[in-house]
């Protein structure tokens, strides 16, 4: 169940991470699309302005047959005092700009420069419009020339999409197309302008005509300019998707391996139980019913019985740990009088201890726990087994007590063994953990007993705690809730 839940959590986290990545990537690309689209629009407007500017000078060349001279004189200074500021813009055969200001001061340099640049920008537009009016009065506008100049300007800004140029005249405030120019590539799509975008540029301030430029599929132009970024982003997303898919595949494969390992463990432990039971029975017959066995044979038969008992307990414990990890594992809980469980446990451990073991039992007759009988028996058996194993060379004294509390039942197992160091106490319930004992190997085990106790108590809705003093003994307490 834990493995299945962990896999679902990992899969959910991966999906959320991938969704967040795709969202952030899409949000960034949307912002980039908007900024690129704005830049393209600015470039188109600038292309229309420059085409108009060059068309005017084309007519000037026509009027003067190439002999034209122009002069722009500027005398500029800066001052912070706005009251003393004067500006003048004039236009005759030559253009002059006079701006009289107080000498430049060191403060607010950036603001002054920005004002100057803004002035020049406005001045440029005013000069172009004034020039337009003057030349228009001398020579009509060449719309064909403007169209060709506009095509050149658009190409210089890397704008290669079908477009058409129209000269629109306002008649009684209603637009009326005077002339239309189509680009060569727009002839194929002349009837499909549903996705087009329009740009208007006034011919002059005193004219009711304006240029109307229509570009087909402008979004395609934006995507073309974003092609490199789009391809790299797509590759990045694909790589991340591949990595996530590989990760999920790896997790699924590990989950499958874990299930195979669990099934193998279950099958092997079940298969081992049969020969162990047969060997145990044969050993018991030889030990108890063979009157011809001498003391030496009985000694070895006793050793075999002891090892078979230990092996049987180990197999049973591994099987229990394996079974409890299955999704189909269910506790068969019932009301169990504690006094029914303790006597068989005491008898069993006295027989296999190999040394004197004294039990002190203080359990009222009316105390019962709601638990799975098999697992409750095994939990108490593990605690008693640890008490015997870690009692050292001295006789083992074990005290088993139970009492009813307000929130449940508490069962404690106390021994007079070697105790557990403070550094080891936080780890004794970890799987496969054994208290370090240097090079001593007189205590056998695999570090599964206490892990099993803690895990089973959690499944029963309870808990286990421990108190220990090195050299004095240890107390394990099982807390069963009502």
Automatic annotation (TrEMBL):
Protein species of origin? Parabacteroides gordonii MS-1 = DSM 23371
SMART domains to which the protein is assigned, alphabetical: HATPase_c, HisKA
Q: Which UniProt keywords apply?
A: Cell membrane, Kinase, Membrane, Phosphoprotein, Transferase, Transmembrane, Transmembrane helix
The stretch of residues making up the signal peptide is: none
PROSITE patterns xrefs:
HIS_KIN
Give EC number(s), comma-separated: 2.7.13.3
What name goes with this protein?
histidine kinase
GO terms, molecular function: phosphoprotein phosphatase activity; phosphorelay sensor kinase activity
What is catalysed by this protein? ATP + protein L-histidine = ADP + protein N-phospho-L-histidine
Q: Which GO terms describe its biological process?
A: cellular response to phosphate starvation
Q: Record's Gene Ontology CC terms?
A: plasma membrane
- TM ranges are 226-248
